[in-house]
């Protein structure tokens, strides 16, 4: 019984770690494109 519980905990922690890495490195949010000067970037 302990082996099954231990395997479940290990697999859950590995899955959470992989999900975190995928979200951090591969799930990039697309930034809304704004015309220059509308967002106060100081380019004009």
From TrEMBL:
Which species does the entry assign this protein to?
Hyunsoonleella flava
What keywords are annotated for this sequence in UniProt? Answer: Membrane, Transmembrane, Transmembrane helix
Protein name, please?
Answer: FeoB-associated Cys-rich membrane protein
The portions of this protein that span the membrane are 6-26
